[in-house]
Each structure stands twice: as C-alpha cells, then as structure tokens.
Write a structure and sequence with these properties.
- The chain is an alpha/beta fold and 150 residues long.
- It has helices spanning 15-25, 82-95; strands spanning 8-12, 29-36, 39-45, 55-59, 75-78, 105-106, 114-119, 125-130.
- The strands form 2 sheets. Strands 1-4-3-2 form a 4-stranded mixed beta sheet, covered by helices on one side. A 4-stranded mixed beta sheet has the order 5-8-7-6.
- The protein is globular, with a radius of gyration of 16 Å.
C-alpha cells in the first residue's frame, strides 16, 4: 500500500497569531485545540472538507523558521486553478503578507504549473500553486524550480 501524507505539523512561536493567519488568510477550519499551558496545539482542516486534519500547529518553537537547518524546506498547498491561486494572493495581500516573487510565477521556464510564494508569521516558507494555467508566466530561474530559491 502506498504512503500518503496524512497531515503536516508545524512548530510555531505563538499559536494564537498562527491560528489567525491560517484561518483568516488561508481559510483553514479549526477542528480542535489544546489550551493547556505547556501543551498548546491546534488541528486545522480544509475549508469545506471533512474533519480530517490537514495541518497541526504546535506552540513549541523558541525562534522563527531557520532555512539553514535540516527539516522542512517549504509547504506547498495545491488548488485546482490559477484563478484560485490569484484569489489567495488577493486575500494574503489584504492580510499584509509579503511575497517572495511578484505575482504568480511558473515553477520553471515554460512550465504550466506555478503559484505564489510567501512566509507565515514565523517565517515558514509556503507556496500555493495550480498544476496548470501559468503558461507564459515568468520564472525567477530558468534552470531550477522556483520553490528552491525562497
């Protein structure tokens, strides 16, 4: 039987701040949480989805994301269309998020897939992409995946 990703767990420094970001800016639903002082965490599910956790936030980090350490490089979230990517881009801009690249960019030069690249409140690198629809969009690097350079 092939393995599938069940959910992703991220360490955060401030659960309340991260919950606001993932719920308001990205539309995740709160499925459950622990408010115990030394055991704060939250299970988040997809908007309109079932009650399976997609993302778990753990208030365990003492500092922001460090891309020089082994572990998560970035979290990529897929949507069906480039129009949905642009809708998330608008929502994130309204939330005050800064982007790694301007607008929707292709994964590679000439690629039909691509998306937007940004950071969560702790600096964790995030991507929202569509598998097609970005034909003709610029790619920050012609020789390597866009997601590798932010």
């Amino acid at each position: 039987m092939p393995l599938r990703t069940g959910h992703v767990g991220l360490n955060v420094t401030d659960l309340d701040r991260s919950l606001a970001f993932y719920q308001v800016a990205l539309g995740f639903r709160l499925l459950g949480e622990s408010k115990e002082e030394d055991r704060r965490y939250a299970f988040l599910g997809a908007e309109g989805g079932d009650d399976r956790p997609v993302l778990t936030l753990w208030q365990q980090a003492r500092g922001s994301y460090d891309n020089t350490r082994a572990g998560l490089h970035h979290l990529a979230l897929e949507v069906d269309t480039v129009e949905q990517v642009r809708a998330y881009e608008s929502s994130l801009r309204a939330y005050g998020v800064e982007f790694a690249y301007e607008g929707v960019v292709a994964h590679r030069e000439g690629s039909a897939s691509g998306g937007i690249f940004f950071h969560d409140p702790d600096g964790t690198r995030l991507e929202i992409y569509a598998p097609s629809g970005t034909d003709g969009a610029p790619a920050p690097s012609a020789t390597a995946p866009t997601c590798g350079f932010f």
